[in-house]
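Curious: why this fold?
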Amino acid sequence: MANSGLETTPTFADQFNDDNVKTESKKEKTRQLMDGPGWARIKPEFLLLDFKPEVDREFLTDSDKQQLKEDEESNKKHNVETDEPPKKKKKLRGRNKNRPQNTYSKNTGRICAEILAEKECRFGDKCKFIHDIREYMASKPPDIRDNCYIFSKFGKCTYGPACRFGTSHLDSNFKNIINMEIFDPGLKTVTNVLVKELQVKLWKRKYNFGKANKILNEMGVKSKFTDIYEKNSAQDSKTTSLTSQKMLESGISKQVQVEKDEQESGILNSSNISCGNVQPLVTVSTDESAKHVLSIDESAKHVLSIDNGSPDTDVNIETTARNNCDMLQHSIPANSAEKETKIGHLESKGDNQRDTSDTFIRLRPQEKKKISFSNKLYLAPLTTVGNLPFRRICKRLGADITCGEMAVGTNLLQGQASEWALLKRHASEDIFGVQICGGYPDTLTRCGQLIQDELEVDFVDINCGCPIDLIFQRGEGSALMGRVNRLEKIVQGMTSVLDVPLTIKMRTGIMAERNIAHTVIPRLRDQGVAMVTVHGRSREQRYTRLADWDYINECAHAGSPMPVFGNGDILSFEDANLRQVQTGVSGIMIARGALIKPWIFTEIKEQRHWDISSKERFELLQEFANNGLEHWGCDTQGVENTRRFLLEWLSFLHRYIPVGLLERVPQMINERPPYYRGRDELETLMASPSCRDWIKISEMLLGPVPEGFSFLPKHKANAYKSEIRATHGHTYKAIAVSVHGLGHGHNYKALMVSVHRLEHRHNYKAVKVSVHRLGHWHTYKAIAVSVHQLEHGHNCMAVLFRILHSELEVIMRMTLPEGHC
């Protein structure tokens, strides 16, 4: 053994059972460290005393790489004869701003969407996408798996040959297969989708904001866009009306000619001619330029004037049309200047004809939709990470109220598809709202009308807490707390156009030592705001220091009887209970706590600590991946979008410390752990703060990353390597684990362990382990495994794996050269 050139790799337990003084001093130092503030107390058997973090330069910005290079060169040139010590290495701290998106090609090698839908491409040979399916399939990357989640759930995958899991639903000719037993063409799981017709109107500023403009005029708010919208809307209405007039004249004249011909031919007599054969076309418009469509005799107005909500509406219209056939046929002058009659609730809701300034009736507060917010768990609107797939998971785990990511009002009015995507709602979200960011009454009032007319939401939230510099400098987000008069105008305008409750999320104030929320909340309550959420930090604080719940309590009393929710530092059911008992808040909003442990909603409702296993956490990640493929698509672009948002979530999820590893429960949100290992390899991998390990987890779910893939973590500290340095110097750079057939009492079908490199340059190409589960206490038999090849040339006769109580201990025994065993 001594001549083999390799020393036995120590187990994790050996690091703590060694009686040497060095290890004992490390233990004492670690214990003293954990006794201090801000550190989580981990059980000694899970601590990694020999861990030394190193920077992984791949996940650094160019400026940080240059800084490290300069520090290294400076230390190399250090003169040992001088008394000056070498420069200390600077720790990576802070955030990476202006992070680039994933660098994968979005156009190259993609198949045309029209071809996927089995339609003819209108661009023909000029189309930049592939039209030949066989050519596309030859260049397409290999499928990730042979089971498509979308096909197995819905019976049809709309991505067809482009699906990265398409083996299961493509025939030999690459035609899409449909499982008619479960396929439902009318199934609609997501609402609030931006349609092309609406997007074009927003692009061209032709959307009719008559209702919002009327409110703004009443408030005395002037906007440079008001005239533009009204002019473009009038032109669009005129075009629509002229088209309708031509269709009406053409249709009636043709019908009259047909009946005349039938009379002359003896098929019909005069008694058989009735207006029942003529379908009246009534086009409703309130614009002054659309007066030429239809003019009805004054004597018939009392018949056609039908009260909103009348149950006899359809009968009255049909009877009137039949009894006044001659009047309808001859009352359309070529250039009539009379204004057309509006027909109650049958007025057209399409195009720009909905609720214009002439017909808008403002609802009283008693008539608006009410929501009981009290004692509900509210998942905070979270930028980037609070996406629809994540909200679905939180909803299943117990969240009561969900809200979309912050959407910028000006971008919504411009019809930006990426901004409208933030407003989508899943069918499982029974109490759902959208959060809008803006700084001016005209912008947000128009947004309010747009949301009211086009979306299905239960409430609308105004963001008054965003601390981002770009938003703040535009007078939006938390800047509105310093401009209360303008904020009141915004609230007044939005409550006038909305039929659903208006809520506001704010911070304690702008400056750290100057809380102003308690002065703003009563004024908002008096303007009709339904609920306010207070985050217990100021804009200047960001996430430093603990949330001020004493001040949240003061705000709750200042806003009474209006519901006031509290937000900040909730990571356990004890935290939630304490805040609700000690303060007068009506409910709890959870933000980072839900990102770190989305099962917090279950813990609060069931009043227990959930020692969730690595298997259960991995299943949550699998659920997110499936939701992401359903939401963003299962083609290459959809897979990479899902991967990106999964990595963003893992940057929070890795901060969770399993309950079974803690000496003191619960974990506090401001506590960080020393370096530790989990109870199994998968738990250890999930606890890694290294961005490289997050990517490995994503590869277990979504396949290998594409060539040229890059991901810059939000926090610079996540660029450190996750290495476990054993006493003898061997370093495990990465361990990827894939577990199949999970579940209590079931066998582990396969455990794949891949060790890429050891510091001694011995490269394990492949290690395959088959593990059989024995008994209730997770006892495992020892299994001998052969290793195919070592690059260094050593012949490996046997590798023994022993697993006890979910703890993987690797004992490597290297033999003498072949023939000397």
User: Anything to note?
Assistant: Residues 224-264 form the longest helix (41 residues).
